[in-house]
């Protein structure tokens, strides 16, 4: 699932902290592919559902 995020609020060696409206979520680099220019991230469907992010689908 491709999700639209508002901003990258932090970055570690393991992943990114992303802001979706008022919600901050950590996405591991091992399971997410980010496009900083488009502000989208591709994640498995199960992760988007588990994090409650399916409404941010791009």
Your description of this structure?
With 58 residues, the protein is mostly beta strands. The protein has one domain (2-56). Helices cover 10% and strands 45% of the residues. It is built from one helix and six strands. The protein has one helix at residues 45-50, and strands at residues 2-4, 7-11, 15-20, 23-28, 33-35, 40-42. The strands form two sheets. The protein has a three-stranded antiparallel beta sheet, with no helix packed on it. A three-stranded antiparallel beta sheet has the order 2-3-4, with no helix packed on it. Strand 3 (15-20) and strand 4 form a beta hairpin. The longest helix is centred in the C-terminal third of the chain and has 6 residues, at 45-50.
How would you briefly describe this protein structure?
This protein has one helix and six strands. With 58 residues, the chain is mainly beta.
Which series of helices and strands comes N to C?
A: EEEEEEH
* Terminal residue distance: 8 Å
Mean residue pLDDT: 95
Strand element count: 6
**Unreliable parts:** none
Largest sheet: 3 strands, antiparallel
Q: Which term fits the overall shape?
A: globular
Q: Radius of gyration in whole Å, from Cα?
A: 10 Å
Number of domains: 1
Share in helix: 10-25%
How would you classify the helix and strand content by structural class? mainly beta
DSSP helix count? Answer: 1
Strand content: 35-45%
Arrangement of strands in the largest sheet = 1-6-5
